[in-house]
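Supplementary notes for students who missed Thursday's class. We covered one full example, reproduced here. Read the sequence, then the structure, then the short commentary at the end.
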Amino acid sequence: MKYGDRLKKLRENKKLSQQQLADILKINRSTYARYELSQTQPDFEILKSIADYYEVTIDYILGHKSEIVELEYYKNKIATEFPDIDLMFKDMESLTAEDMKEVYEYIKFKKSQRN
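Structure (token representation):
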């Protein structure tokens, strides 16, 4: 997957328009649009801002993160944010990184319903 595709997917997951994200990053919308089209690359500071905003690594955005690393990322994120859930990890060993991401998002959603 190209970095532009990852940027688009991350933005759409947050239900943001290109303009909203460009405003957050303090850049022009057309500049951001070219990032998503992989026509131009963001400089390091913008890339860092994007990664920080989405709480992902720069490696993830650039496509250097393997499925195994991504799986570990979500396992660690779940274990850190929801410490009582670590007992379930034995049952989740067969899940993919995408499955773990869905588990993480579901737990966040359920927790937000209680607040």
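Commentary. Helices lie at 3-13, 18-25, 29-36, 44-54, 58-62, 67-81, 97-114. The longest helix spans residues 97-114. If anything here is unclear, bring it to office hours.
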